[in-house]
Amino acid sequence: MPDYKEMYLTLFRASEEAVNTLIAAQRACEEMYISQPEPEIVVLPFGEREEGGSGSCTLLEQ
Fold first, then answer.
1. Residue 47, C-beta contacts closer than 8 angstroms, at least 6 positions apart
2. What confidence category does residue 29 fall into, taking pLDDT thresholds of 50, 70 and 90?
């Protein structure tokens, strides 16, 4: 007869290890994110709306 308790405990330990691995990876990524320099924020000019267009999209010409 299979040892269901041992099977359950094996699966539970593996699940717990997987969750801890994900938490560690998330913390590492958060640390990488906050250690980066702040991006430069650029205010784009408000352009004219194209005729027949709707909405608030602005087309920037290059």
1. 58, 59, 60, 61
2. very high
Q: Which two tokens stand for residue 24?
A: 């560690």
- Per the listing, tokens 């913390």 go with 27
Kindly report, residue by residue over 1-16, the tens digit of the pLDDT. 999 999 999 999 999 9
Q: Which of 57, 40, 41, 61 is nearest to 49 (CA)?
A: 57
C-alpha angle 26/40/27, rounded to 5°? 10
Are 60 and 44 within 8 A, CB to CB? yes
